[in-house]
Amino acid sequence: MLTQGISLLLKQSDINAMWKQYFKFVKLKPGKVVTSQFGEIDFSADNIGIEIIKSLYENGFPYLEITKAGKDEFDGVISEMEINEMNRKPNRLKTKINI
C-alpha cells in the first residue's frame, strides 16, 4: 500500500513537471507573475500543477499558449473554439463623442 502511494506521488510530480511540455509561457520572461486566480506564481519553476496552468489558460491568461502536445493531450477538454476565442485579438471599442 505504501509503495502504491509513493508511486502515485511520483507520477503526480512527473505530471506537474511536464506543464512546459503542454503550455508555453509567452510575452514575458519566465519568473514571478501575480495572477488574479491563484496569486503569485513563479513560471520559471517546473513544478506548477498542470490543473493550475490549465485553469489559467482556460480563463484567458494572456501569457500562456497551448503547444501541439497540449492540444493532443487535452483534446476534448479544451475545445478548438475556446482556443480560437482565446487567441483572437480583442475588438477595440469605438466611441463617438458628441459635443
Query: Averaging pLDDT over every residue, what do you get?
Result: 77
Shape: globular
- Total beta strands: 4
Q: Kindly, what is the distance between the CA atoms of the first and last residues, rounded to a whole number of angstroms?
A: 76 Å
Across the major sheet, the strand order is 1-4
Largest sheet: 2 strands, antiparallel
The protein's oligomeric status is single chain
Number of domains: 1
Question: What key attributes describe this structure?
Answer:
disordered N terminus; alpha+beta; two-stranded antiparallel sheet; 99 residues; 43% helix; globular; 5 helices
Structure description:
There is one protein chain. With 99 residues, the protein is of the alpha+beta class. The protein has one domain. 43% of the residues lie in helices and 14% in strands. The chain is built from five helices and four strands. The strands form two sheets. A two-stranded antiparallel ribbon has the order 1-4. The protein has a two-stranded antiparallel ribbon with strand order 2-3. The N terminus is likely disordered.
What is this structure's SSE topology?
Blueprint: H1 2-17, H2 19-22, E1 23-25, E2 32-35, E3 39-42, H3 50-58, E4 64-66, H4 68-73, H5 80-87
Antiparallel strand pairs: 1-4, 2-3
Summarize the structure.
With 99 residues, the protein is α+β, with helices and mostly antiparallel strands. Helices cover 43% and strands 14% of the residues.
